[in-house]
Design goal:
This protein is an alpha+beta fold. It folds into 3 domains: 308 residues, Kelch-type beta propeller (Neuraminidase), CATH 2.120.10.80; 106 residues, Potassium Channel Kv1.1, Chain A, CATH 3.30.710; 61 residues, Serine Threonine Protein Phosphatase 5, Tetratricopeptide repeat (Alpha Horseshoe). It is built from 11 helices and 29 strands. The chain has a 5-stranded mixed beta sheet with strand order 23-1-26-25-24, with no helix packed on it. Strands 14-18-17-16-15 form a 5-stranded mixed beta sheet, with no helix packed on it. A hairpin with a 4-residue loop joins β7 and β8. α2 packs across α3, α5 runs antiparallel to α6 and α6 runs parallel beside α8. 35% of the residues are buried.
Length: 498
């Protein structure tokens, strides 16, 4: 094994821990199944129904990721009944289950399960529900349960519907863009406002096309296949983790697959992974869910028997939390409790830390540690020629090395302050913020400002804009101001002549 370990690319079989006293061995692990519905809520994996090899199931299980214990869920209320390949989602403490196939008919009933009270209820929606189907895409977005596509027993579909949890109303959604063709049993996952759909079957062929739907605008877009694109398949699994989507297994029409792929959302590239360890056999119609730093898969069908084995794949040996330095430092801006120096700006106190300001600015180092009156402990230092809002932005930069939510007008005043406090990088950031606001009406004012404060890069950009838009610029009030700066007028004339 290489240094650092290939454990980040290793499967291992999950063994359920021993159950507490009084729980029978028969309750320890769910029986074999394919096409079960599953969802992760907190530290629990919930799994309902599926196909057990001789018939459809309606049993309900939960797996505790911390204790590694399976437990059958004993419920109150009317069970949804046996079914497979149905979608289950979670919304505000309840699970919701729509449709599926019970072995003799395709369904479009809708059921809710309250997690805390362990109670099922049939949801009676307003309006007509979608037609019966299984093998569809199901996600929650905002206060909607959204579904796409599937198979109704005679027809493959690509319609989209959503259920409003607030009004209990179903409605068909008119989507736009590059809408996927009809299909059932693709894989899907949700990341932010987007749902991603890969592959599926349309009654004739298996597919490996890839789509994204923005659930805010209901707009579809096809994603180009770059890199090691998975071969066409359906009944495969899909999960999202840390900026990537992972696809495992499925059925290609002749074989149950055990290949494993990653699609990186940032690069748009597919990569085939080469994991080690206790490799799962090829399978379709499996449960796949992410919890913490791992992908878990359960059961499925290998072409001969229905399975109930359980595997874990760790994404990396240790999950390093994202850095928080900038946000932590931003909390020091005007923080009275953690300050040791007070400035008075526009009559308001502004609190800061001496050591941070001195480390980041020669101007503040001379002020606070140079033996002047301002270096005395407890002294209140009055700041002139800088507004309160601009001074706070100045402190934000000194603590975090970044600027956030700066308007073009603030950037103008901050540029002046950056020159006063000898902050070259801040000056450049302000120039960039101002550059994006250049228009025919503002360019001459910005040109003057850049000249006055030695912002050479901004000045050059403003001058180019003036030359490119001279017909419109010469009629503005700002152009008249240039008469007070004959040197700048001559610079424009000479540049235009050349």
């Amino acid at each position: 094994m290489p240094p650092g370990g290939s454990r980040s690319r290793s499967w291992r079989q999950v063994k359920a821990n021993a159950l507490p006293p009084g729980v029978s061995v028969g309750d320890q692990v769910p029986g074999p199944r394919s096409g079960a519905a599953s969802v992760v809520v907190g530290n629990k994996l919930f799994m309902f129904g599926g196909y057990g090899g001789s018939g459809r199931l309606d049993d309900f299980w939960e797996f505790d990721f911390e204790s590694r214990i399976w437990k059958e869920v004993h419920c109150q209320g009317p069970s949804p009944g046996v079914r497979e390949n149905n979608g289950v989602v979670e919304y505000k403490g309840s699970l919701y289950l729509f449709g599926g196939y019970n072995g003799s008919q395709w369904l479009n009933d809708f059921h809710g399960f309250h997690i805390e009270t362990r109670t099922w209820r049939k949801v009676e929606p307003a309006g007509a529900p979608p037609v019966s189907r299984f093998g569809y895409v199901a996600v929650v977005h905002s206060h909607y349960f959204c579904l796409f596509g599937g198979y109704d027993g005679t027809t493959w579909l690509n319609d989209m519907h959503r259920f409003n949890f607030d009004t209990s109303l179903w409605e068909e959604v008119n989507t736009s863009g590059q809408i996927p063709s009809i299909r059932s049993c693709p894989s899907w996952c949700k990341d932010g406002d987007n749902v991603y759909v890969f592959g599926g079957y349309d009654g004739v062929q298996r597919m490996n096309d890839f789509y994204r739907c923005d659930l805010e605008t209901m707009t579809w877009a096809q994603i180009p296949g770059i890199g090691d694109v998975p071969t066409p398949r359906y009944f495969h699994s899909c999960a999202v983790h840390n900026g990537s989507m992972y696809v495992f297994g499925g059925y290609n029409g002749s074989d149950r697959l055990c290949d494993f792929f990653e699609h990186n959302f940032d690069t748009g590239t597919w990569t085939e992974l080469e994991p080690h360890g206790d490799l799962p056999t090829g399978r379709s119609s499996l449960v796949a869910q992410v919890h913490g730093n791992s992908l878990f898969i359960f059961g499925g069908y290998n072409g001969q028997v229905v399975l109930n084995d359980f595997y874990e794949w760790r994404f990396q040996p240790l999950l390093v939390p994202p850095p928080t330095l900038q946000e932590d430092m931003r909390k020091l801006v005007n923080n009275r409790e953690l300050s040791d120096v007070t400035f008075i700006v526009d009559g308001f106190p502004v609190y800061a830390s001496r050591v941070h300001l001195a480390l980041r600015s020669e101007h503040f180092r001379a002020m606070l540690y140079g033996g002047m009156r301002e270096s005395e402990k407890g002294a209140e230092i009055e700041i002139k020629d800088v507004s309160h809002a601009v001074f706070l932005k100045l402190l934000e930069y000194l603590y975090t090395d970044t600027l956030s939510d700066v308007t073009a007008n603030q950037a103008v005043h901050l540029l002046v302050a950056s020159e006063q406090y000898l902050l070259a990088r801040l000056k450049t950031l302000c120039e960039e913020a101002i550059r994006t606001s250049i228009t025919v009406d503002t360019v001459c004012t910005i040109f003057l400002l850049a000249h006055k404060h030695n912002a050479e890069g901004l000045k050059e950009i403003a001058l180019d804009f003036v030359l490119d838009n001279m017909e419109g610029v010469k009629d503005t009030a700002g152009f008249l101001e240039l008469k007070q700066e004959p040197d700048l007028l001559m610079e424009i004339i000479f540049r235009q002549a050349s």
